[in-house]
Amino acid sequence: MRPIIHIENVGKRYQIASERAAYSTLRESLTGSFTRSVNRLRGRGETTAYRAFWALRGINLDILPGERLGIVGVNGAGKSTLLKILSRITEPTEGRARLYGRVGSLLEVGTGFHGELTGRENIYLNGAILGMKHAEIARNFDEIVAFAELGRFLDMPVKRFSSGMYMRLAFAVAAHLQPEILIVDEVLAVGDAAFQKKCLGKMSEVSQNGRTVIFVSHNMSAVQNLCSRVIWLAGGQVVDDGEPARVISNYLRTTLTTMSQQTWPDPNAAPGNDVVRLRRAAIVPAVAEFEDHFTVRTPLRVEFEYWNLTPGSALDLAVVVRTEEGYPIFSTASGREPSWAGRPFPAGLYRSSFEIPGGLLNDGVHRVDISIRRNERQIVYHLADVLVFDVIDTAEERRGSFGKLVGAVRPSFTWQTSVIEEPVADSVR
Amino acid sequence: MTLMPEESVRGLPPAADVLPVSSDATLPDQPLVVIEQRDAWLSIDLAELWRNRELLYFLTWRDIKVRYKQTVLGAAWALLQPAFMMLIFTLVFGRLAGAAERIPYPLFAMAGLVPWTFFANAVSNSGNSLVNNVQLITKVYFPRLLMPAASVLAGLVDLAFSSLLLGAMMLYYGIRITPHLLMLPVLFALITLCALTTGMWMSALNVKYRDVRFALPFLVQLWLFASSVVVPSTVIPERLRWLLYLNPMSPFIEGCRSALFSTPFHWRAIAIATALTIAGFAVAAHFFKQTERSFADFI
After folding, report:
1. Is the pLDDT confidence value at B206 over 90?
2. Helix/strand/coil (H, E, C) string of B23-79?
3. Using CA atoms, how far apart are residues B89 and B95, in angstroms rounded to an integer?
4. Which among B3, B62, B136 has CB closest to A377?
5. Rg (CA), chain B
6. For B239-265, how does the pLDDT look when each residue is reduced to its tens digit (9 = 90+)?
7. At what angle do helices A134-148 and A163-175 cross, to 10 degrees?
8. Could you tell me what percent of chain A has a pLDDT over 90?
9. Nearest by CB: B210 against A23, A111, A197
């Protein structure tokens, strides 16, 4: 079968100016080019410290029509860059990609939404931005409204929408995009469970119509369920490509082992946005005496340090701890902490932590997601797999049995057994 | 407290249940798009712009819709801007400049201010259009040229409103119109093109150099005084007047006055200005196209 997307040796290089903000001023550029040319005349080399950084290199892929390709990899592996190249937002530095179908890309939910416009107006605007024709939008209009469950809010400015309604509307428009190739970035990272379910259902419906889907997500169970093929990107290159279960398990095994502490000393490069930025995430033993690994008995402390960049918003950290396969074990949020609940945070650096008591987690790899919410309902930042840690069984816990105990958690309950009735010795015999 | 991301993929059919349905027959022989580093010497892709005409319409419509939201006076600002300027100019320059033409100064000033206000707003809005729409630039592909173009086109609505005010003033002062007025739409079109050209330069530079954001208001202010809006070009000594030809806006605005007040057109000046504008547009289009490729990387 002929591929619908043919990617040939694609690479993308970024120039990173060291110790400098992303954009320059005209004067710097002028003086910079002046000193460069003077130095060149004098026979010296380049003075400006630019570092070339290949976000992607040597990507060769053939994607077949109807294939549902999942892309997995840690943050910075090049996933988003590849999607941006295929969506024509940025050009590759080398190589080329040939597309034999119309592309619709959904790199963000609600691109181009304008808060002042009503739901109805935004449906048309957003549809046009995503590449739909006016007639196409008009034809699907009722269906979009129904999918978004807008009801009487249809003619209200979207700035008055709840975040849930906003997301539903945005996804509803995008879901009715009907290109031959649909490119979807981590759009499921936000929104509530019902919304995510709806989105995934819609996406699987889209792919069953024979359309090609390229899907990036940190949600491994979503990737596994939705995709027919998975590639694993690391350091801008394809490390593995093939059957979803195998690639995902390779990926999890190789990458998700040593991330029990992460520190980002440079606020400009730290994960986050204009509202919050992370400085440190760590899971450490909450006790003094500690062997070199976490056992099922070790009490653990999960710590986050973060900058609040917009004073006055009440921040709330929500954490989900998952099993290796991505199934949630529990979630917890800082919003109920009595000293801060609902209070506005002044701008500054904060640390929030909580403890997981010993004797709760089962053995195995655990993954931690963090969402930072503002004013109780708006998710301003989400990062999956911010921490990954391994919990190990101890010999005395195991007590001679082998294999992992069934269950997401393994609390040590106190069992009690008592005799209810003593049988008459004769009747037993 | 309920917005916790959760799993919710159960209930989906396993991937293996669904087989690819498309076959070779539906695929075109030639790729629809080849993505690679493009040749810098390509000019504007007109076919692509045409395909995206609906998006241009929607972006323009959005700019119009949003412009006066949450203002008390709303679209009245389109009239108030030139009207206030006219009052100030009349107070300051009224006596100085009025003698030069046989037109009452307030009307003289208004005839210049209506096209000028359109031009000035169009240039500053389109100059900031790319930077103000970072979200769109980094998340979705469309010909970037639509962005400054929509900002310029959105200004035409204001121009229509303020033209009504100008018309009312013409009636009030009892000015008769003649076939000269037929040139007015042509001149408005040329001014639009001039604004788009400037907007393309400024918006493209703005992506990389945010200095533009601060320099732009100055540029527009200075340009105002070089465009025969305040005083007629005749107050400038004859031997220096050719300098005004270098600024297309001066002949265009004087041309608007000729069209409205039925004075003779300076055809030579208008022709030179038109040639400059078209040449400038061609260069701007090339520059824009060349820098467009890296917008998403720099913005």
Report:
1. yes
2. CHHHCCCCCCEEEECCCCCCCCCHHHHHHCHHHHHHHHHHHHHHHCCCCCCHHHHHH
3. 10
4. B3
5. 24
6. 877 777 789 999 999 999 999 999 999
7. 140
8. 24
9. A23
Query: Which amino acid does the sequence have at A396?
Result: E
Based on the domain organization, do A243 and A300 belong to the same domain? no
Residue A153 sits in the same domain as residue A245:
yes
How does pLDDT run across A306-355, given as a tens digit for each residue? 998 888 888 889 999 998 778 889 999 887 777 777 788 888 899 999 99
Give me the domain span that covers residue A85: 5-13+54-255
Rg (CA), chain A: 26
Q: What is the distance between the alpha carbons of residues A130 and A177, in angstroms, rounded to a whole number?
A: 8
Q: What is the ipTM of this complex?
A: 0.80
DSSP code per residue over A69-85: EEEE--TTSSHHHHHHH
pLDDT at site B159: 95
Q: Suggest the residue from B140, B211, B293 to mutate for an interface test with chain A (most A CBs closer than 10 A).
A: B140
On whether both A311 and A239 belong to a single domain, the answer is no
Q: How far is B50 from chain A (nearest CA, A)?
A: 13
Task: Please report how the helices B183-208 and B105-127 are oriented relative to each other, as an axis angle in degrees rounded to 10.
Answer: 40
> Is A49 domain-assigned?
no
Q: How high is the pLDDT of residue B125?
A: 95
Is A115 an interface residue toward B (CB < 8 Å)?
no
Residue with tokens 């009735």: A421
Residue B59: closest CA among chain A residues belongs to which residue? A125
Q: Which residues of chain A have pLDDT under 70?
A: 17-50, 187-194, 196, 221, 255-258, 290-293, 394-404, 425-429
**Paired sense of beta strands A261-263 and A68-72, if any:** unpaired
Kindly state whether residue A28 falls inside one of the protein's structural domains.
no
Q: What tokens does A282 get?
A: 């760590």
Model's pTM, two decimal places? 0.70
Residues in chain A with CB shorter than 8 Å from the CB of B8 are 193-194, 196-197, 200
The domain tally of chain A equals 2
Structural domain ending residue among the three candidates A225, A255, A285? A255
Phi, psi of A320 (to 5 degrees): -115, 130
Using CA coordinates, name the residue in chain A closest to B16: A228
CATH assignment at residue A345: 2.70.50.60
A185 and A268 together in one domain: no
Mean pLDDT taken over chain A = 81
- Which of A102, A121, A212 is facing B32, going by the closest CB pair? A102
Q: How far is CA B63 from the centre of its chain?
A: 12
pLDDT per residue as tens digits for the range B116-159: 999 999 999 999 999 999 888 888 888 899 999 999 999 999 99
